[in-house]
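Entry 14. Two folds queued back to back today. First construct below, sequence then structure tokens.
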Amino acid sequence: MSPGLLVAVGLFGGVGAVARFLLDGAVSRRTGRAFPYGTLAVNLTGAFLLGLLAGAAVSGSAYKLAGVGFIGAFTTFSTWAFESHRLGEDGRLCLGAANFAISLVLGVALAWLGREVGLAL
């Protein structure tokens, strides 16, 4: 990987992280913080977009910039896992399990849907 591409992936990652922060905040302001809807929205959007890139056969530098840089920084496995754990720790085990299951099932479904849309392009 060239130094220029490495810097560009970092810049795209920065944009992805800011986009995650903004989307999570906007969703959470509207829905409250009893359930991590913001993180759910971020991760489901990212799963769809990554599927779209795969379906559209984006590769090489474009994939590294969009998939690894932007979407990699936009989505967040660690926050999803932590928020699920925190819900259980707070005595809301059913909500924690629901967050885990809903994110997993819908994430896979949206990655598939994004891939199908990408294949159709």
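Second construct, same run, same settings:
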Amino acid sequence: MFEFKYTKNFTQEQLSELFLSVDWYSGKFPEKLKIAFENSSRVISAWEGEKLIGLIRGLDDGIWQATIDCLLVNPKYQGQHIASTLLKMLLKDYEHFLYVDVVPDEKQNVSFYQKHGFEIMEEGTPLQIKGANWK
């Protein structure tokens, strides 16, 4: 069975392995991932023994607005409700916030979030600058 933990204590290798398992570019920067997760507002992870198999990260201001920055599960463990459990746990933590936002990196994931109560914003459009592109 899987264990879910509120922890920010990951090795660079654990984070890199998980992020690369879903082909996320950020997995190539394990030292930055480790620092980013140590500095995150909320992190919930899924484990099989000592193996990190999934996680969710929330960034928030403590009361008003929260953003789900990432939710990922190693493909070998997908389809076992791990992502849903992680999301429900984080949303429970944020139940008194006015807004919880998510901007899925892949359009195929929109229906997953809609299934959990998220709605597409009629007026908003996500914008992003990637680190190498700003001057």
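Quick look at the second one. Helices lie at 12-21, 30-38, 82-93, 110-115. The radius of gyration is 15 Å.
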